[in-house]
Every structure is written in C-alpha cells, then in structure tokens.
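hey so i finally got around to running the thing on that chain from the lab meeting. sorry it took forever, my laptop kept dying and i had to restart like 3 times. anyway pasting the input first so we r on the same page abt which one it is
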Amino acid sequence: MRLLSNKWFLLAILSLTWGSSFIMIKQSILAFSPVQVGALRLTIAGLVLVIFGVRNFKHIPKKLMPWVIVGGCLGNFIPMFLFPIAQQKVSSSMAGILDSLVPIFILIFGFLFFRIKSRWTQIIGAIIGFVGAAVLISDSGNGEPSDLVHSLLIVLATIFYGMNGLIVSKYLSGIPSFKLSSVVFTIWLAPSLLILGFTGFFTEFEATPVQLRGLGFVAILGMVGTATAMILFYKLIQQTSAIFASVVTYLMPIVAVFWGILDGEKLTWIHAIGGVLILMGVYLIQMKPKDKLDLNP
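ok and heres what got predicted. didnt touch it at all, straight out
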C-alpha cells in the first residue's frame, strides 16, 4: 500500500504498462484477428470490473449517463479496435510514438468545442507535433513510406482519446475514478461479447499453444493495461497534479521503442527525429507560464 502512495512508483508502473501494451498487441494479433483482440481486451477488462460496475451505476447521475456512454465509446471502446487493426502494418514502436499525439488533440478540440483558450506556445507546439507525425509516417523503416491508412488509424485513436479526456474533464470530473471506470467497462462488456460471438471466437478457439499464448497477452492487456492502469492513472492525478501525471506521455514512447527494438523492429534516424518533434510539441503544449506553474507536490 505504501508503494501505491508513492508517485514515482505509480509513474513507473504506468509508463511500463502503457508503453508495453503496443508490443503485446503485436503479439496478440499473431493468434487472433485484430477485431477479436480488441473485443477480448474489453471483455476481460469488463469481467474484472463488472461486479463493481453494477453496484456503481447508482453513483452516476442520470443526466451524466449520456456523457459516460459517449466518453467510454471514444476513449475505451473504439480505440481498442483501431490499434490492433493499425498494427497489422504499423510497428509497435511507431504506434507508441504516435500515441503521444493525444495532448495535441486535447488542445485543438478544447479550443474548438470547449472554448479553452490557447497560448501561442501551445499553438507552436501543436504545429511542431504535427510535423513530427508527418515525418514519422513518411518512413516505414525499410526506406519506403509507412502505410498511410493504418498510420492514420492510430492518429484517429488519439483524436478519440483527446475527446474523451475533454469530456471527462468537463462533465465527469466529480465522479470517483474507480466508479467511473467500472461503470464504463461494464457498459461495453455486452457489446464486446457480441462482437466476439460474431467473429466466431467461441467456435474457433481450440486452446492451441499459439492461441493460449495470444490469450495470455490479451489477458494482461485487459486486466493490467486497461482496467488497472486507468485506475492508477486517476489516482496519480489525485495524489500529485495533472502536470506530473502527464510525464507518462514522455516515458511511454521510450518503453514502446525499447520493446520494439528487442523484437527486431528497425528504428531509423527519421523515426527518432519524428518522435522528438512530437514530444517537443507535447512539451510546449503542457508547459505552463512560470507565474501559473502548478507546484503541487
């Protein structure tokens, strides 16, 4: 319990967990279709939290339930399918780096839809981040352009993550994180089970070594990378500040690249330049003026 109260321990666990999720997705789609991987991940997370979720429905005001559903769809349902589909053609390293675009879309949609004013440094940061993404997508690692469609699927997932973050911040910030997370995954448990059924998972699963290995990776993704990680992330924000918690954005791609290199993925100088530009953009977006700097411990 002491470790769970240590901000550096929580930060390290989150960075390792989320940074490792891309390589686990890559291994999972060797055994199952991308749609099955996404549905399995949601199903396992839902089964872990459903007991708590059913009880916690009463803590969600009825007027906020539409936002819970929409936010859960954008941030916890659709992206779970987009990443496995994209990683059929996109390396886990590149997926991890592109995932860092989330703060950029929070800035853009915050300005467009939530009337959140932007500073000039944030605007420059967004431009630099998009340039970095373009540079990253321009090279697949073998001297050829990356698969544009599959790369844009990851960008689309970060757009949904950004919208979900704004919805939670604007409408759902008063709901305790565990109660909110448990209700969200309980809502999407039934649709995930239906998708598994329609894809033939229950009839095709034969418990072969390859399938069991893939199921192990998906189970880790669902229980640790999805359900538990979201709870720890909100706990980290509550114990420290949003600025400190955002450090995950910088550490997660490093972990993803590390696993990618170990798995034999090629990392070129173009990838490195693109990644650095994205992180520079994120830094400028999240940097606060000195007189307004959040100094929470």
